[in-house]
Amino acid sequence: MRAMKWMLSCLLMLAPWGPALAAGPSQVKIVETEGSYRLFVDGKPFFIKGGGGSGHLDELAARGGNAVRTWRVDSDPAQMRAFLDNAQRLGLKVAVGIEVGNERHGFNYDDDAAVAAQLARIRGEVEAWKDHPAVLMWVAGNELNLHYTNQKVWNAIGGIADMIHEVDPNHPVMTTLAGFGPPLIEQIKQRAGSLDLIGIQLYGNLGELPEKLRDSHWTGPYVVTEWGPTGHWESPLTRWEAPIEDDASRKAGVLLERYQRYIGGEHRQGLGSFVFLWGQKQERTPTWYGLFLADGESTPSVDAMQFAWTGQWPENRAPSIAPIRVDDRLATSSVVLKPGSPHKAHVRASDREGDALDYRWTLREETTATSIGGDPEHLPDAVEGVIQAAGAGEITLTAPRKPGNYRLFVEVRDGQGHAAYANFPLRVE
């Protein structure tokens, strides 16, 4: 009997998606009623409360999220299957990202053979995963309008949408746009009119969304597929043009305000959103966009999203934090230090529940990255031997001997899996 059970288990594992597929594919529809749009999953209204990223899915579900967005199909079928099965187990739906060639990365949309090969590859990906019950919709390409010139990309997107509709009648198809205006929307209507909706990606200018929709004459449905803190390209700069990042507490307040004003209450065309990033990455800094630290601690922005989605704060919240000050000056003062000179830096942090706080300071060389669209960046090296603790939230910083641009970081942990952070760009000359 034990051997029979073992054999049955193996057969289930070898089946396309194991026992999670018993219910078959989800039936996902966008329904229009007098110019208003609603998303339905298996006949029930579904407003997307999502995170962009493939990690921390347990926490996403626990915090009130109901969906996750990815950027590509995993090349390892076992990994892709495990991800979708885990999402299904947690009650999360997946907007499955499909990688589509970007012109800025060298893809040539005048090359008919390359376009055809891409379409064939995507067909295989859709056919492989279309029947998994966790699939919510297909996201064909990411920010293909970023630094591009060849309008044929939208013909390719239209062809992808047509193919997916032929292969998979159960799930809508979209593409995502890095901002938008009337000319872009007109091209999409003409060349990719079979898209079911569009994905809109805005950060500091999310408040312009209603005006952009009106001016572009986009009256169809949309999802805000990326939004979050104010972007590094739209933030204040030091005099040497280093972007000044908001601290973790300010970001959390900004996220909550933006969600409540422009996303959560928009039910005419908006079908919901995916906050960016439900995870962590290096993009100008290691904390700019991620709602988690590299070792998994959640930040005040995660708490803010829980409140946005559920109306309830967690029982134990992340610490709060204020901006770093160096010699009692803020980063907007464009602080310049002399090589080898000593300076005082401090930060104020507190914990609502009274948990003991652990302060971790690091000085790193400033990034020289100029990448766009979230392309990969290298985490700059830490500078050793320049920080001496002087008390809770206080240090003595010895300016590096090497002239250049640097950034001082602090992470404040509460010992309960939560943290806050801040950083300060400075220059040595």
Description:
By secondary structure, this protein is α/β, with parallel strands linked by helices. It has two domains: 16-310, Glycosidases (TIM Barrel, Alpha-Beta Barrel), CATH 3.20.20.80; 320-428, Immunoglobulin-like (Sandwich), CATH 2.60.40.10. 26% of the residues lie in helices and 26% in strands. The protein is built from nine helices and 21 strands. The chain has helices spanning 2-14, 57-62, 77-90, 112-129, 152-167, 182-191, 209-216, 248-262, 300-310, and strands at 28-33, 36-41, 44-45, 48-52, 67-69, 93-98, 135-142, 173-178, 197-201, 222-226, 270-276, 320-321, 325-326, 336-337, 342-346, 349-350, 358-365, 387-391, 394-398, 404-413, 419-428. The strands form five sheets. It has an eight-stranded parallel barrel with strand order 4-5-6-7-8-9-10-11. The protein has a four-stranded antiparallel beta sheet with strand order 13-15-19-18, with no helix packed on it. The longest helix is centred in the first third of the chain and has 18 residues, at 112-129. The chain starts with a helix and ends with a strand. 42% of the residues are buried. Pfam families: Glyco_hydro_2_C.
CATH superfamily of the largest domain: Glycosidases
Order of helices and strands: HEEEEHEHEHEHEHEHEHEHEEEEEEEEEE
Q: State the distance separating the first and last CA atoms.
A: 76 Å
Gyration radius from CA atoms, angstroms: 23 Å
**Low-pLDDT runs:** 1-22
The global form is: globular
The CATH architecture classification of the largest domain is Alpha-Beta Barrel
Helical content stands at 25-40%
**Spatial arrangement of strands, main beta sheet:** 4-5-6-7-8-9-10-11
CATH class of the largest domain: Alpha Beta
- Structural domain tally: 2
The average pLDDT value, as a whole number, equals 94
Q: Quick one: biggest sheet? A: 8 strands, parallel, barrel
Structural class category = alpha/beta
Number of strands: 21
Percentage of residues in DSSP E strands? 25-35%
Number of helices: 9
Signal peptide: 1-22
Domain Glycoside hydrolase family 2 catalytic: 101-175
GO molecular function, one term: hydrolase activity, hydrolyzing O-glycosyl compounds
Protein name: Glycoside hydrolase family 2 catalytic domain-containing protein
